[in-house]
Amino acid sequence: MQCLNVDLGDRSYPIYIGSGLFDSSDLLVSHMKGRQVCIVTDDTVAPLYLGNLERVLQGFKVTKVILPTGEAFKNWATLQQIFDALLNDRHDRRTTLIALGGGVIGDMTGFAAACYQRGVDFIQIPTTLLSQVDSSVGGKTGINHPAGKNMIGAFYQPQAVLIDTDSLKTLPEREISAGLAEIIKYGFIRDAQFLAWLESNMPALRALDSQLITEAIQRSCAIKAEVVAADEREGGVRAILNLGHTFGHAIETHQGYGNWLHGEAVGAGMVMALDLSARMGWISSEDLARGTSVVASAGLPVMPPENMSQTDFRRLMAVDKKVLDGQLRLVLLRALGDATVTTDFDADALSGCLAMSPA
Amino acid sequence: MQCLNVDLGDRSYPIYIGSGLFDSSDLLVSHMKGRQVCIVTDDTVAPLYLGNLERVLQGFKVTKVILPTGEAFKNWATLQQIFDALLNDRHDRRTTLIALGGGVIGDMTGFAAACYQRGVDFIQIPTTLLSQVDSSVGGKTGINHPAGKNMIGAFYQPQAVLIDTDSLKTLPEREISAGLAEIIKYGFIRDAQFLAWLESNMPALRALDSQLITEAIQRSCAIKAEVVAADEREGGVRAILNLGHTFGHAIETHQGYGNWLHGEAVGAGMVMALDLSARMGWISSEDLARGTSVVASAGLPVMPPENMSQTDFRRLMAVDKKVLDGQLRLVLLRALGDATVTTDFDADALSGCLAMSPA
């Protein structure tokens, strides 16, 4: 087992990464302060792993909330089911919520923990590759609004993150690719050497080679932890973690939540960000080709959906959380391994980039 | 104008108290960082003061949200109207929300600010005596759940609090009394000298003598600021601010939100807490009589509603946020001016106290 620390002063917490962690009660229980616990999961993950967790939590008063699966349910009505269960079973301020599932479950459970009685503890047990390397670390929680993704939420840190790599064995191939999108992102924004390592090892990573995938998760979490520690509430550098996400969120919203996986939208979105960086002359056409090829090799789309026009992109990107005083800000690359957040992009270059979509 | 500081490190903020503050744009604008602002108010306060505020904010992009008045609307559906307006007018992370109204508006606006894009700034302009001395200071925000009051919310501090004492002139007498309940509370929990001062000046306070009411607000806010600075997230001493509130919340929930004013329920609830303190032998029967008389002199009820049974109280008090591991905690007095939070109360004494209600 590996252990990383997210360094946030009195909100610091450990990330445990390894095989067989579901069956290790000590790790979990050492981060709980009361005898009440509420496990929140979905109807895809529950049949696979809820039993393991219940065995580990014998002796606790356990409430289970099994939500419908998918981004389409990341809304207030679903969140309310968590509050209803907590109040129905009279959970008090010492309770611990456990998020068992992918990013949607983690975001909603974290937000429920942030709001229930103005804040109770929670633990992340991410079961998808995407949530293991991204949403479970860093304390971004929330739900969607019909007008935009993650528009309602809180910065709220967990007590601990438990990543059991065994859970990847039950993941569909498409979701492995989606997770690899965020892993590739860390190479693009911060670590050219890691990017080269990913290029060399992509087939083995897609085949879930145990040692390599653990290394990829560990490196990804380490980069994320470092960026989050530098800027917890995204006043500055943290925004680079959104490489490809402004384009990607527009794609997800346009297609209806859940039709494109988040990682797929980020894959295409990162290629768009690289394309814009190349049009600006910040990276070479070789770098663009190389970046596009890494994304493709992970089994991800490198083009936005055919039915999206430039107008669609502009309308949906205007509500991005990085917009300030009406000015769109984008994460672009100055080189592979070096990202920056900027408002200083050429309008024509952006038009050219968006026109990649056959509008 | 008087200015107090709530000392919370990088979340510190000023409370301004005085006459004519609505018309002073400098105070307000100095606490805003963008050009966007969203004023949230209700249909009672809007006709009285919204115009003043709009005049002061000329040059800003102002969104107005006018909500229905009352505790019955302190729920998710109403909160959603704030998010809808913010997204519709494309407010970004630099926006400022302004709560113009009583405690319900302040709590909902603060919670909306805590959650919108994971947190934007807000300013409290409380227009009722109750919210001026209580809910506008200290950062407790939230909404009600059908199963309990303020069960969903956040600790989230404003940028500033502006208390314009002129706004009291339009308040109904019943709401002045409700505000005096919380003012009396500060005397009970922390300041016997202030309690004696209130006893002497109650008729003039009810008549809104300008100098005296400003002094009462200032002293109340100072006590609250001191307690909150010592314990922002209510891990300990802050709970004494809830004197009478466990009983009071039970009364409010039982009667249906809005039928008893919060201050009225707290008035009766404080007398119940004093009664229990006397039954425990912690305060004398003279102190109980004196305390009851101060509450009555403010025009507040000193008995719970006739239709509430002991069983009703026990059921509703079991979901109080101060319950930990199934154990009810109450705020009781060791003397007038000295409160403590305790689980150490006699079961028979509590039964006797609850039986004050003719059940």
From TrEMBL, chains A, B:
Keywords: Amino-acid biosynthesis, Aromatic amino acid biosynthesis, Cobalt, Cytoplasm, Lyase, Metal-binding, NAD, Nucleotide-binding, Zinc
Domain 3-dehydroquinate synthase C-terminal: 179-323
Pfam families assigned to the protein according to its UniProt record, in alphabetical order: DHQ_synthase, DHQS_C
CDD domains: DHQS (cd08195)
Necessary cofactors: NAD(+); Co(2+)
GO MF term list: 3-dehydroquinate synthase activity; metal ion binding; nucleotide binding
Keyword flag Nucleotide-binding: yes
EC number of the protein: 4.2.3.4
Record field: catalytic activity: 7-phospho-2-dehydro-3-deoxy-D-arabino-heptonate = 3-dehydroquinate + phosphate
GO terms (BP aspect): amino acid biosynthetic process; aromatic amino acid family biosynthetic process
Keyword Lyase among record annotations: yes
Localization annotation: Cytoplasm; Plastid, Chloroplast
Record-level GO cellular component terms: chloroplast
Residue span, 3-dehydroquinate synthase N-terminal domain: 65-177
Similarity comment text for this entry: Belongs to the sugar phosphate cyclases superfamily. Dehydroquinate synthase family.
Name under which the protein is recorded: 3-dehydroquinate synthase
Lineage: unclassified sequences, metagenomes, ecological metagenomes
